[in-house]
Amino acid sequence: MIVIVLYALVFLTGNHKPTPKLGIDLQGGTRVTLTARTPDGGQPTRESLNQARQIIERRVNGIGVSGTEVLLDGTNVVITVPGEQGDQAKNLGKTAKLGFRKVVANATQPVVPPQTAPPATTPPTSGAPKSSTPPPSGAPSATSGAPSTKNGGGGAPGAALAQQQTTTPAAPSSSTTPPASTPAPAPSDGSVDAQTAQEIQAAKAVRQNPQLIGADGQPNQELVAKAMASLTCAPNAKDPLEGNDDPKLPLVACGDHDTYKYLLEPEFLPGTEIADSTSGYDQQRGQWVVNLSFKSDGTKTWADFTSKNQGQQAAFVLDTQVVSAPNIQVAILDGNTQITGKFTQSEAKDLSDILKYGSLPLSFSSSDATTVSATLGLASLQAGLIAGGIGLLVVFVYCLFYYRLLGVLTILSLALSGALVFAVLILLGRWIGYTLDLAGIAGLIIAIGITADSFVIYFERLKDEIREGRTFRSAVPRGWVRARRTILASDGVSFLAAAILYVIAVGDVQGFAFTLGMSTVLDLVVVYLVTHPLVAMVSTSKNEFLSNPRHLGLGAVQQVGSQRKKSTSVGRANVKEA
User: Fold this and answer.
1) Which CATH superfamily groups domain 373-568?
2) Rounded CA gap, 526 and 522, in Å?
3) Spans of biased composition, class Low complexity (predicted)?
């Protein structure tokens, strides 16, 4: 009855196909593990992790691949994308922390960035704020609603922000340089490694020093020179502040494809005020752009800023990187703006999707990225099935050789147990998204031994009862009462071990523990509802072939029981004569 109900659910729900949900190591795909980082190196809260998981899940769904999965594993977010379209998943962990800051000064990036800060009295050309030269014609710019013709881009027409032009920052202050703040000590809870936490705090102390800009709005020449000298702008350079900058503090950051270093004021408009984002091709500029529209409060803030700061630069900062820093020519009042930055089509679309679905409350580093081809996945699945088949065959041969007809009952019970496990795996894949991987198959193979062990315990207890002189019919109920205690204890220990392993383990080991524990529970179901009733039915059968102990592998023990019974009878007779 249970089998009928389970397979009715299999064929009447979901895609109506008896196919379990397979992991990427069996069907091919990409798995990316992202490790959360906090600015102070502390333990991220569960609420922020759940929020990050939901945002990443929306980004993953935007790829358009079915069967994707985003799970929390401690402080890690694990992204699984089946098939051959998982390369985009490797970029889904970008914080996408977008903010709008006013540019105070910028400097051209030298070919070889200085490694140490120069003397305060003579700052280098690359580090000191100065009047910037106009960038090339392809420099980043932003417009209000420039029309786009591809990929869903486009916005309402309106005023424009022209190409970045020459700006003259205010003269640096001559005030005495105060000492930089000491970086915070590394955390001791193990949530983030000590080196990473120290790098974040050290970079923040130099590049986000509150005294980079004085109370009069003037940049501190010595501190700015030191901050720019400490910053390496290169395509493969790792920025420890990426996604961890404080929006309430000034910032020194790279921009314009690592050709400029910018000194920026605190953030005046957060990226959370973006209402929508699309990508498209701007025919006038001949480049891919990202079109933004703000919410009501964001529209007002943007309008006020562009009205009061005409002739100044506004920087669009994404994950501590300036992606665009145009000059403000006229006020933008309708809340429609355009970001350009020499994007390719895929870069524009990825940025648009990330901004649309929101920024992450935490920054993440990619700690592991695994890609398995569909061919290798199929080979792994075949290897797992062959291993399981060999295990079953060995158990079948042993049972038939040692228990004969009882071995046939064992084979029937194992077949039914396999059918139950298969149906449950299909339904769990549909209901809770469980995926069967190689580790899970290993758990199922080991569970074959656990299930066979229950049968051995039962049958050996029957032999013990028959050795004591009982018939097969009378031995079955007595043997079952004693055997089920041992079976419960054995399966209880196995399930407890699997449960503990599932709780303390991570990744693939959890899949192993899950299938092992599930198979152990189903073993009890099969032994109680299938194996014992079948044995009891055979013991009460009037068919001489079925009830013959020799055909059940019990002939030898029956002879031993008969001899003991005769010995007992002779002993009793002698006692009576005496």
Assistant:
1) Multidrug efflux transporter AcrB transmembrane domain (1.20.1640.10)
2) 6
3) 139-150, 158-179
